C-alpha cells in the first residue's frame, strides 16, 4: 500500500460517482474516510463497497470534500466550515466563482475554503459507479484566492496528488471561462445536434456512424444536473456560444450562396475553363472554417497531455468473445504501442471496426504485420 500524503481523516460529503471515487482512492492509501450523504442508502452502498465508514460525533477531519449538486454546494460548504472549525474544506463542483461568492455572502470562513474541480467522470452515476482510479492522469483544478494561504490549501494539493491527478492552478474566473469553452458549450452543441434526431426518419438514423456518435455522445448526460451547471456558468458559456453562432451564421450564408443559381453558373464556368469572374466567397468561407477546425483539433492534448497527432488504422474485428483482446495482444507482440482506440459496429454485420491510433512511424509496420496474421485492414 502506497502511503498517503494526508494525515486524515477525510470527510466526503455526497457519495455519488465523484465522492465515492475519491473515497475509494483514499482508502486504497489507508486514509480514514468518513462518508456522509442525504441518502442513508447511498452511504450504506458506499460502505459496502469499501469506500469508508459512517460519521460519528467525535470526528475531527483534516479535510472535508463536498461532492453535492451545484445548486446546494455553497450551503453545504458553509455548513461544513461551521461544523468542523479546524478542517480545510474543498468542493468538486464544475463552477467555481459563483460558489465562492455565495460562500462569502453567507459568511463562510474562506480562510479554510478553496474550490477545486476534477475534470473526470463517467456516463454512469451513483456510488456503484465509483472507481478508485477515476482521476489518474486527469486535470484537477484548484481555484485559489487571496484569503487562503498556500500552507492551508496544501491539504487539497495532497488529496489531488494522492489520487493520481494532475494539479492545475487557476483563479475561479479563469476556471469558469475555461470550462465554458471545453465542457459547457460542447454539452449544449452536442445536445442541439442530438435533438435533430428526434424527428428524423428511421432510414436516416440507421446510417449513423462514428461522426454522429462522436458529436452526440455527451448529449446523454443528466438534464437536471446540466440545468444547474449551465445556470451557474451562464455568462461565460453564452459568450462561447455567441462566437459559435456567428461562425454558424457564416457557414449557413456560404451554403445558401453555394446553392444559389449564380453559384451553379459560376461552377459551370469554372469547369469549362479559366474565368475572369471574381472568386466565389462561399468556397473561401467554407475552406477557412474547415481549416480552422483542423487547427483547433491539433491543439487538443492527447495521451499524457502531449499535443501530438497519431496515425489511424481501421481493423475489422469479428463480433466474437476475445477477438478485440487478441488484436491488442498481437499488436503488443509486434512491439507497437496503442495510443488510442475507438470501436464501432458495422450496421447489420457481425463485425466491428476498431480504429486504432498509433505513432505515424509505426503504422506501415503494423499494417503489414496484422495483415500477415490474418486481420482484415479496412483503412
UniProtKB/TrEMBL annotation:
Q: Does the keyword Amino-acid biosynthesis apply?
A: yes
One Pfam family per UniProt: PDH_C
Domain spans labelled Prephenate/arogenate dehydrogenase: 8-286
What GO annotations for molecular function exist for this entry?
prephenate dehydrogenase (NAD+) activity
Instruction: Tell me the route in metabolism or biology where this protein functions.
Output: Amino-acid biosynthesis
Which protein family is named in the record? Belongs to the prephenate/arogenate dehydrogenase family.
Q: What is this protein called?
A: Prephenate dehydrogenase
Please tell me the species this chain comes from: Herbiconiux daphne
Amino acid at each position: 500500500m502506497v502511503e498517503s500524503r494526508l494525515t486524515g481523516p477525510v470527510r466526503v460529503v455526497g457519495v455519488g460517482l465523484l465522492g465515492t471515487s475519491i473515497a475509494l482512492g483514499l482508502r486504497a492509501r489507508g486514509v480514514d474516510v468518513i462518508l456522509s450523504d442525504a441518502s442513508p442508502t447511498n452511504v450504506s452502498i458506499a460502505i459496502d463497497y469499501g469506500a469508508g465508514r459512517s460519521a460519528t460525533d467525535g470526528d475531527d477531519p483534516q479535510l472535508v470534500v463536498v461532492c453535492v449538486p451545484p445548486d446546494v454546494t455553497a450551503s453545504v460548504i458553509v455548513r461544513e466550515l461551521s461544523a468542523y472549525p479546524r478542517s480545510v474544506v474543498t468542493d468538486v463542483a464544475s463552477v467555481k466563482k459563483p460558489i465562492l461568492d455565495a460562500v462569502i455572502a453567507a459568511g463562510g470562513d474562506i480562510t479554510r475554503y478553496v474550490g477545486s474541480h476534477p475534470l473526470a467522470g463517467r456516463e454512469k452515476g451513483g456510488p456503484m459507479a465509483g472507481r478508485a482510479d477515476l482521476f489518474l492522469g486527469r486535470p484537477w483544478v484548484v481555484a485559489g484566492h487571496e484569503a487562503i494561504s498556500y500552507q492551508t490549501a496544501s491539504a487539497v494539493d495532497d488529496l489531488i496528488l494522492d489520487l493520481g491527478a494532475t494539479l492545475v492552478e487557476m483563479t475561479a474566473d479563469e476556471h469558469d471561462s475555461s470550462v465554458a469553452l471545453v465542457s459547457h458549450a460542447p454539452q449544449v452543441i452536442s445536445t442541439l445536434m442530438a435533438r435533430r434526431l428526434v424527428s428524423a426518419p428511421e432510414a436516416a438514423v440507421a446510417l449513423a456512424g462514428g461522426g454522429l456518435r462522436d458529436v452526440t455522445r455527451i448529449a446523454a448526460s443528466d438534464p437536471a444536473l446540466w440545468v444547474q451547471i449551465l445556470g451557474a456558468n451562464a455568462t461565460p458559456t453564452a459568450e462561447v456560444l455567441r462566437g459559435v453562432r456567428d461562425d454558424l451564421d457564416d457557414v449557413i450564408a456560404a451554403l445558401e450562396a453555394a446553392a444559389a443559381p449564380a453559384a451553379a453558373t459560376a461552377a459551370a464556368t469554372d469547369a469549362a475553363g479559366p474565368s475572369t469572374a471574381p472568386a466565389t466567397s462561399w468556397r473561401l468561407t467554407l475552406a477557412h472554417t474547415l481549416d480552422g477546425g483542423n487547427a483547433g483539433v491539433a491543439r487538443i492534448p492527447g495521451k499524457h497531455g502531449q499535443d501530438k497527432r497519431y496515425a489511424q488504422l481501421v481493423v475489422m474485428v469479428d463480433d466474437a468473445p476475445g477477438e478485440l483482446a487478441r488484436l491488442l495482444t498481437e499488436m503488443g507482440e509486434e512491439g507497437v504501442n496503442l495510443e488510442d482506440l475507438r470501436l464501432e459496429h458495422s450496421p447489420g454485420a457481425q463485425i466491428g471496426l476498431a480504429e486504432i491510433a498509433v505513432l505515424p512511424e509505426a503504422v506501415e509496420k503494423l499494417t503489414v504485420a496484422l495483415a500477415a496474421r490474418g486481420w482484415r485492414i479496412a483503412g
